[in-house]
Specification:
Blueprint lengths: L2 H14 L41 E6 L9 E3 L2 E5 L4 E5 L5 E6 L9 E2 L3 E5 L4 E6 L5 E6 L11 E3 L2 E5 L4 E6 L5 E6 L9 E3 L2 E5 L4 E6 L4 E7 L10 E3 L2 E5 L4 E6 L5 E6 L9 E3 L2 E6 L3 E6 L5 E6 L8 E4 L2 E5 L4 E6 L5 E6 L9 E3 L2 E5 L4 E5 L1
């Protein structure tokens, strides 16, 4: 096993175990779809949500049968969470359990939701469509065993897009699961695709980024960015694609050509998916720091030291940015200044992207609890 492969293998194991008011930030109206990072562009922005400026109280704390890596989403007005043992569970926003679906595998992938269905994959190769009303299985597509889905799906129109550990990016018919087309990137895909203007942006663990025409699955451009892996999912901001790499660099690529516009170097690896709003990009690093940098230039605006490595994504709501770390802290920072407003301690690593809705922050932890703070 070569140095890069050994480094990447260790990286994956560690990861798995492991803005001011409207006068200052003019929030763009991103679609608040039920999907990883809150929208198709993966910006991590929850628009029109309240600031939580002081240490919140625990609204709900629900024990699950295994630890939670996937991010919570809303489905038909209810809270939906995937658990690593394969339980897909729906709760009311107040924490009352409504139903469970057994995915018969390991769920790291965050479900995607449209008006009729929930789409969810397992690491063992099963990919489901589940009826949003009666939670019955509508269809199942099977990928090669043990080459399933770590990346989260995205649904647009009548098509579900998802990257697989077999190295391919798939377009599936949302009505029956039929493969419409398949694009082979050559290496495993851990990062969730970002989508905009009919183009999917896909990164793989060989350090390559692809722009793919979603109409026909054809390559528009390919960029050989790094020798190291992408675990971070890309985010789209205007003409830039922002993505962190395990070489410790946050890259800003041109969405038109894939050329590197700028790079910001942290002190260690970046698996945290960036959040972006207006002229600021937010992300954490394995160097036990959380950063805000300029979207235009990649220069540092502020740096906040955390208790442990930040391996998961951040989200933005109101004037605040929220994220977790490997020590089990959930942080609430002032997005403009990086000042700590509060932090909340759990007993396990926080890897998921928090969900912010109606004054409540929902997230899961390796301590096997689903939390809701308000």
């Amino acid at each position: 096993m070569n140095r890069r492969s050994l480094f990447f293998k260790n990286c994956v194991l560690i990861v798995l175990l492991g803005l001011l008011n409207a006068c200052s930030f003019d929030h763009k109206e991103y679609p608040q779809s039920g999907s990883f990072r809150g929208n198709l562009k993966n910006t991590g922005v929850f628009a029109n949500q309240k600031d939580i400026l002081t240490l919140p109280t625990t609204k709900l704390k629900i024990k699950t049968r295994d630890w939670i890596f996937a991010s919570p989403v809303f489905a038909g007005g209810n809270l939906l969470i995937g658990v690593t043992n394969g339980d897909l569970i729906a709760f009311t926003p107040d924490g009352e359990e409504l139903w469970q679906f057994d995915a018969k595998g390991t769920i790291y992938s965050t479900p995607a939701v449209d008006d009729n269905s929930i789409y969810c994959g397992t690491m063992e190769g099963k990919f489901y469509a589940i009826d949003i009303k009666d939670h019955s299985q509508k269809w199942m597509t099977t990928f090669e065993y043990d080459k399933g889905t770590y990346a989260s799906p995205k649904v647009l129109g009548n098509v579900v897009y998802v990257g697989s550990l077999d190295g391919a990016f798939y377009a599936l018919d949302s009505q029956n699961g039929k493969v419409l087309w398949r694009f082979d990137t050559g290496e495993k895909i851990y990062a969730t695709a970002a989508i905009d203007n009919g183009i999917g942006y896909v990164a793989n663990h060989a350090g390559k980024v692809f722009a793919i025409n979603l109409a026909d699955g054809k390559e528009i451009w390919k960029s050989d960015v790094s020798e190291f892996a992408f675990l971070s999912s890309p985010a789209i901001a205007d003409t830039l694609l922002l993505i962190g790499n395990m070489d410790g660099t946050l890259y800003a690529l041109s969405i038109n050509s894939g050329k590197n516009v700028w790079g910001f170097k942290a002190d260690y690896a970046i698996s945290s998916s960036p959040s972006v709003i207006e002229d600021m990009v937010f992300f954490g690093s394995w160097d036990k720091s959380f950063y805000a940098v300029s979207l235009a230039t990649g220069t540092k605006k502020w740096r906040y030291e955390t208790a442990n490595q930040v391996i998961g994504p951040s989200v933005i709501a109101g004037s605040m940015v929220y994220f977790g770390d490997k020590d089990g802290f959930l942080y609430g920072l002032d997005a403009l200044t990086g000042k700590e407003r509060w932090k909340f301690k759990t007993e396990g690593s926080i890897s998921c992207s928090p969900l912010v809705y109606d004054g409540v922050i929902y997230f899961g932890s390796q301590d096997r609890y689903l939390y809701g703070l308000n």
